[in-house]
Design brief:
Cofactor: Mg(2+)
CATH architecture of the largest domain: 2-Layer Sandwich
Keywords: Hydrolase, Magnesium, Metal-binding
Family: Belongs to the inositol monophosphatase superfamily.
Number of strands: 14
Radius of gyration: 18 Å
Order of helices and strands: HEEHEEHEEEEEEHEHEHEEH
Structural class: alpha+beta
CATH topology of the largest domain: Fructose-1,6-Bisphosphatase, Chain A, domain 1
Largest sheet: 7 strands, mixed
Number of domains: 2
EC number: 3.1.3.25
Helix content: 25-40%
Number of helices: 7
Shape: globular
Organism: Hymenobacter actinosclerus
CATH superfamily of the largest domain: Fructose-1,6-Bisphosphatase, subunit A, domain 1
Length: 272
């Protein structure tokens, strides 16, 4: 199967879905917000965008199933190929009229990522990758940065917003990165964070309590752009592990060592 061609078609579907989000952003009313959990927001835009994506992706690869955030009816998993969909990563940003928010879709065969697209709606940037074919932004090749050490790096992260059980431990990690880098940024979309690592805008990104649909496309983008993506304390595949460290590869060891030192000291057991 030609995963590069599939990624082109996926990008077209993601752009159409992003066009719908852009259209709705002009007139969005906060009265349309629902709460899936504490501070976990969803709107009709998320749900309708997911339906658009499911319909479009069925045309791209009819035999593929779906792993979705919003549970679109009839979008069930399949045995071999599955699309992993986040229709609007950064819903809170969208609701407040704040960039950045993205459409994020990855394709897995078994458990292996083979194609992915992150479409950042406001900047109209389409990040695309296919296994073995490299990574691109608006069809220009992208690569992770060449910054060699953490001290000279700009790092991205995400903040807990529903489960605060590890807040104290997380803040210690955050403080260590603040002291040991050029700075830490919180964009509000893990998909964008990973895409920006792939494009060399960030040297690294770390976050926990993530879902597969938050990171699927971004993981492949970073890897195809020459970077590295793992779990916090181990080198396993983070797709379903709920924690991610992504980097340009050069600062990865420093990032894992810093995180590992703090988690071990605090006994957080995030990887357990």
């Amino acid at each position: 199967m030609d995963y590069n061609e599939i990624s082109f078609q996926l990008a077209a579907v993601a752009r159409r879905a992003g066009g719908f989000i852009r259209q709705e952003s002009a007139t969005f009313n906060r009265s349309h917000i629902e709460n899936k959990g504490t501070h976990d927001l969803v709107s009709y835009v998320d749900k309708e965008t997911e339906k658009l994506l499911v319909a479009g992706l069925r045309e791209v690869l009819p035999e593929a199933g779906f792993i979705t955030e919003e549970g679109t009816e009839g979008a069930d998993r399949a045995e071999e190929y599955n699309w992993i969909i986040d229709p609007l990563d950064g819903t809170t940003n969208f609701v407040h009229g704040l960039p950045v928010y993205c459409v994020s879709v990855g394709l897995i065969r078994g458990g292996e990522l083979v194609a992915g697209v992150v479409y950042e709606v406001v900047r109209d940037e389409c990040f695309r990758a296919a296994k073995g074919a490299g990574a691109f932004c608006n069809e220009q090749p992208i690569h992770v940065s060449e910054v060699p050490d953490l001290d000279s790096s700009l790092i991205a992260t995400g903040f807990p917003y529903t489960d605060f059980g590890l807040m104290d431990d997380y803040l210690k990690v955050l403080g260590a990165f603040m002291r040991g880098s050029h700075g830490v940024r919180r964009v509000g979309s893990a998909a964008a964070d990973l895409a920006y690592v792939a494009a060399g805008r960030f040297e690294g990104f770390f976050e926990f309590n993530l879902n597969s649909y938050d990171v699927a496309a971004g993981i492949l983008l970073v890897r195809e752009a020459g970077g590295r993506v793992t779990e916090f304390l181990q080198d396993g595949d983070p797709l379903f592990g709920r924690e991610v460290v992504a980097s340009n590869g050069l600062v990865h060891g420093e990032m894992q060592a810093l995180i590992g030192q703090v988690w071990r000291e605090q006994g957080a057991g995030i990887s357990g």
